[in-house]
Specification:
This is Lipoate--protein ligase. InterPro entries: aa-tRNA-synth_II/BPL/LPL (IPR045864), BPL_LPL_catalytic (IPR004143), LipoylTrfase_LipoateP_Ligase (IPR004562). This protein is α+β, with helices and mostly antiparallel strands. The protein is built from twelve helices and 15 strands. The protein folds into two domains: about 240 residues, BirA Bifunctional Protein, domain 2, CATH 3.30.930; about 80 residues, Enolase-like, domain 1. The strands form three sheets. An eight-stranded mixed beta sheet has the order 7-8-9-10-6-2-1-12, sandwiched between helices. The longest helix is centred in the last third of the chain and has 15 residues. Bound molecules: ligand LAQ. The site of the ligand Nc1ncnc2c1ncn2[C@@H]1O[C@H](COP(=O)(O)OC(=O)CCCC[C@@H]2CCSS2)[C@@H](O)[C@H]1O has 25 residues, from strand 5, strand 6, strand 9 and strand 10.
Amino acid sequence: MKYLKMPESDVYYNLALEEYLFDHYKDEDLLLLWKNHDSIVVGKYQNVYQEVNIKQVEESGIPVARRNTGGGTVFHDKGNLNYSFITDHDPKTFSDYEPFVEPVIRALGSLGVSAEKRNKSDIAIQGKKISGNAQTIKGGRILHHGTLLFDADLESLGDALRPGSGVFSSKAVESIRSQVTNIKDYLREATIDQLETCLLKAYFGDEKPQPLALSDAELEEVSLLREAKYITWEWNYGRSPEFSFQKTGWAGGSKVAVELHVKKGLIAACGICCDEDLEQKIDSQCAQRLLVGIPYSYTAVYEFFSQTMRRDLAAALTDCFF
Ligand SMILES: Nc1ncnc2c1ncn2[C@@H]1O[C@H](COP(=O)(O)OC(=O)CCCC[C@@H]2CCSS2)[C@@H](O)[C@H]1O
């Protein structure tokens, strides 16, 4: 049994490292502990557009990353500790979260915090969620990972998980939104480092945890995986299951109704309906045609409209698309 405190804070790198270890370390049980800079992590089968506030994440530059496990969307920052268990998978315990969640609850208990497992995959304190968990199984091995909200900035990151007001229709997995809280609020005094130490103790018991060291060649492979998969728009946005979107909004004093069909993150069909005044300024027939094929991104749609109209009108119209 070995452990690794992942040294980087880049969400794309850390997801690549986790996948690399899951795929290549077949004979060892591993515990990884890791934190990311502000970021949003969506589940493998989710529609990112349905889960995050696209305008906000594009404007603020918060990275959005798709992971390799199912489940919903969570936010990460330096106050959120992630753990990953990589071990053999016992087919009798398919989708059993208990053996992985139990040491985490014990670690919290050793700090004096009483937490409990809730539903299939959450850990909560007094009914408020502090941890979300997800799993994937491959070749007789299991990767189980989870979050721990220690002292995360719940408010500002929570905003990024509130999409605009349009109506989506898709087969994507939807997040189960919960009230969240920080573990720190239930402690008189403790740091996130102490929480890490308690987790190692709960998992390894009296056995001395052995640190895992990766070679330069392995680290190079991780960087390549980050570039080839985790950082790409095709993986993070383009993997969203196809969906339809409808929204009614206002631009230049006119009511606008937008209908979109999006496939692989690209606009595949577009309908814009507005009254005569606005129609003269935007030529909706032409816009509908030209928008097909462009990435469904706030920046791309805004740039499209701002080529032919005033910036404030372009911004208002773009708002009707998200
Ligand atoms: N960091 C964090 N921890 C716990 N709960 C969170 C967090 N961020 C948001 N939320 C709440 O969970 C729901 C989504 O819950 P839902 O149950 O839909 O999804 C999950 O929990 C997925 C957990 C994935 C864990 C991985 C481990 C390493 S990489 S990410 C969201 O709407 C918020 O209400």
